[in-house]
Amino acid sequence: MAEHTLKVDGVIRVSPNSDSNGSITESTLPLTLFDIFWLKFHPVERLFFYELTDLTHHFFDSVILPNLKRSLSLTLLHYLPLTGKIKWPPQAPKPAVFYSPNDGVSVTVAESSANFDRVSADDIHEALELRPLTPELVTSDEFADMVALQITLFPNKGFSIGVSTHHAIFDGKSSTTFIKSWAHLCKSLMDEDQQSPSLPPELTPSFDRTVIKDPTGADVSFVEKWFGLEGKHSSNSRSLKVFQSFGTIESFGRGTFELTREDLKKLRNRVEEYYQVKESKNKLHLSTFVLTCAYVFVCMVKARGGDRDREVVIGFTADYRTRLEPPIPSNYFGNCLATLVLFLKAGDLMEEKGFEIAADKLSEAIKGLENKRAVEALEEIFDLYGKVKEGTQILSTSGSNRFGVYETDFGWGRPKKVEIVSIDRNNSVSLAESRRRHGGVEVGLVLDKNEMDAFASFFNDGLIFV
User: Fold this and answer.
1) Distance of CA 325 to CAs 210, 318, 320, 335, Å?
2) Where does the UniProt annotation place the signal sequence (predicted)?
């Protein structure tokens, strides 16, 4: 790994800004069936890089840090459960979040000597370089934190904000809403010099768990399934530690690739022309997500090469807020995702029309959501657990081009780069809107160096001949 150091200046706990002098009582937030499904998954880790080429230690210490800490304290007033911990009382059928206004969020303050331009670039660089900038979320047998933050100074270059979130309380939409709320209040404090700025309705979270209906008790069933599976490998079947990840490998590289609006238009035309020739009557769902995933996954399968008979498993999530009956509020904070899985053969995706085949399969899967209950989709994942064959190539996504992460302005401009660091733990690809071109998509990958070089070749060459 490139030589650089990280100096930790301190670890603080930021608590909600409250004038209350009354007694502090502990509150409880239940975990729904959607939350329980993600209880054992590793944290989602994001990095936001902000470029300020004249950033001094004095300005960082006297302006940036105080504003970030004060606005975080104000933000936590709206997001009180995030200050607490997941615990599992002895007589309770499932874990829950326990919190009080006296609790707080861990914030690490650090300084890095890393090359800011390199670690925030699209170009391929060592994946492990981002790890020191990412805070560790503490999980143990007895409890699990909700969120951890790290603010890192790059002298005369800028700063980064690292965010690690527990998947049992945050889905992608919820995580993005929390960060945008923090940014909104921070910017408001500076722009308007307000002591107590407010959040707009779209950033005001709802923690009302009664909107999630679970008449069959799927939440407890999911608990039993997860901890039954872990009981085979652990002496503590009630441990709140997250599962071990695949881990990072020193030789892996991280890179960002872009599909422009024009690229996506050409890819859409390519699929439509193929099915016109086949005289297919299928009505295709060719969203930006479908086109992006189909193209990227095919390039990844080709880059891996090898056995054409190997199985390829494609997994992705869908937001069910508007698909539930009745639909739940768009500002609902928590998990509301269903996970879908496709099984394909590598050889089919390596064919000349592999992209078109992948787009068709993804299109059909998404159309099938209209007739599939969320509980059914999640239960299917448990049925598949442990049944994936050795040598299977697993492909999945993290993030979304709809989240608008590049709108996250704390008062010093939009981010130069946003990364989902945790894709180095689970072999997924990250998705975000293009920061340079309206309608485009940024795709982040972490691959072995040889596979990364092959992927880049397939990705770029494929767009030339679209």
Assistant:
1) 13, 15, 10, 16
2) none
* Residues catalogued as catalytic: 167, 409
CATH fold for the domain made of 253-464: Chloramphenicol Acetyltransferase (3.30.559)
CATH second-level architecture of 6-231? 2-Layer Sandwich (3.30)
Q: What is the pLDDT of residues 386-439, one digit of tens each?
A: 678 888 999 999 999 999 999 999 999 999 999 999 999 888 999 999 998 789
For Cα atoms 122, 125, 129, give the angle at the middle one, nearest 5 degrees. Answer: 110
pLDDT at res. 435: 93
pLDDT of the residue at 412: 97
Instruction: Give Cα separations from 53 to 67, 109, 153, 192, 258 (angstroms).
Output: 19, 19, 12, 25, 25
SS3 194: coil
Tokens 């939409």 sit on residue: 173
CA gap 445, 229 in Å, rounded: 30
Torsion angles phi and psi, residue 169, rounded to 5: -125, -20
Give residue limits of the domains in the chain.
6-231, 253-464
pLDDT at 384 (0 to 100): 79
